[in-house]
Design a protein that fits this description.
Elements: E1 3-9, H1 17-29, E2 34-38, H2 41-51, E3 57-58, E4 61-62, H3 66-90, E5 95-98, E6 109-110, E7 122-123, H4 131-139, E8 143-146, E9 149-152, E10 155-158, H5 161-172, E11 177-184, E12 202-203, H6 205-213, H7 222-233, E13 238-243, H8 247-250, E14 258-260
Amino acid sequence: MNKLFIIKIGGNVLDNPEQLNSFLKDFASIREPKILIHGGGKIATHIGNQLGIASNYVNGRRITDEHTLDLVTMVYGGLVNKKIVATLQQLHCNAIGITGADGNMIKAVKRPVKDIDYGFVGDIKPGDVNTPLLHVLLKQNTIPVFAPLTHADGKMLNTNADTIASVLSIALSKHFDIRLIFCFEKKGVLHHVEDENSVIRHITQNTYTSLLQQNVLKDGILPKLENAFSAIKSGVKEVLIGEANDLLKNTGQVTEGTLITL
């Protein structure tokens, strides 16, 4: 099977034009088929503060009321997505910006209220992905760039970008050898969040359980690890978590960061 890189970019890299441009240059230079998924939570929070829309998180996930839904649709699907697409076009990388509603690419269901009401947040499964359309785009050497938005019942839904990356990887794993890479500003999963040299090079399911019990893992890394293990358990060949600057290493034979396996 052909190789496919599914790459998620987030964290402070999106807030720093110089770092983001450097990452996008590396991304554009990857010759193999590729898909990019981006976050943008900090940008949404900053613009929300300017508009008087407060942010509320639980376990690293944003609570999305009506006003917040409008905010993230505007920021993720518009501002962040289109800036990335425009930069990639300048780099001769024929990118197309996508939300889950475009081409019915990712359907979702509104997350049911249990202990926490997350509001207008979408939950998705691999079967909710329009894989035939994705195949068409990839065959045309068009690079899908996904904003973290899905849809259901005529409504946009806020959906974690790490989750979208994982679900896309699972949906396409029957057709490609997938390497899923989560990129952000850290060198990988850190044992001590203040110490960049404390990278945990390899995390298994047992290691993950132990780290949770020790309260080592902070909120921001939890969605990445949850989605990494979901992907590995569902047939995705390789998952890496690492620094955006190491993208080209992590798309080659020598890898940096944290490797996730069962």
